Amino acid sequence: MVTIRLPKPSLFLLARVSGFIVAILVLTWALHFKTSFVPYAPSQEDLIYAVLHPLLMVIGFILISGEAILVHRWLPGSRNLKKSVHLCLQGVALASGIFGIWTKFHSNDGIVGNFYSLHSWMGLLCISLFGTQWLVGFLSFWHRGEARTTRVQVLPWHIFLGLYTYGLAVATAETGLLEKLTFLQTIGNVPRRSTESTVVNGLGLGLALLSGIVILTAISPKYHPSKSKESDIQTSNGYHLS
């Protein structure tokens, strides 16, 4: 059996490019087509909060948490430095996610009025898991009195839940895009064939591509540039295709 592996720098480049495209698309949608958020925003203040919601959840929550996942793969330095940067980035992502959800609850509909769809339920589940994950990670890997054996036992679950929550965040964003676009097309604000529909669909595809690249990079073997190319050519009998 032949295994084909992309060099790790190529994966990092793909992750950064896809993340940049996602950021441009969500900024274009939220700022250029902001009139689409007017039905949810009877006042200027409500409009600002409505526009902030996709920006915070996509750029602040998904993109930054994805970058935090990759820190251990690209950042040089000690393990403590990598863990510090990872924890800080995840903290920024958590704060962005909490504030992003609050912007929806800030509207005149209130909390109950916004807690009706699959998107809202998945969002609350995702931010709850993310917050719990961040707290457990802090206690497990930064509490100096914690036994090493306990940290080793928790690590696989920490990695699994981190990747699961990241995938859940992307899935939640996809349901939000679908819900928003369907609503706008139903009330006639956005035609099915329009520039805005193309931008929103492109944003959904970009998020799906980004999540796949980030997860693949996180679980793939570490890249060692000092190794010769010959050592990277093996098959199931001792060789694989680089």
UniProtKB/TrEMBL annotation:
It catalyses: Fe(3+)(out) + L-ascorbate(in) = monodehydro-L-ascorbate radical(in) + Fe(2+)(out) + H(+). The keyword Manganese does not apply. One of its GO terms (molecular function) is transmembrane ascorbate ferrireductase activity. InterPro entries: CYB561/CYBRD1-like, Cyt_b561/ferric_Rdtase_TM. GO terms for cellular component: membrane. Its main location: membrane. Its cofactor is heme b. The chain crosses the membrane at residues 12-31, 51-72, 84-102, 122-142, 154-178, 198-219. The keyword Iron applies. Its EC number is 7.2.1.3. Keywords: Electron transport, Heme, Iron, Membrane, Metal-binding, Transmembrane, Transmembrane helix, Transport. It comes from the Eukaryota. This is ascorbate ferrireductase (transmembrane). It is found in: Membrane.
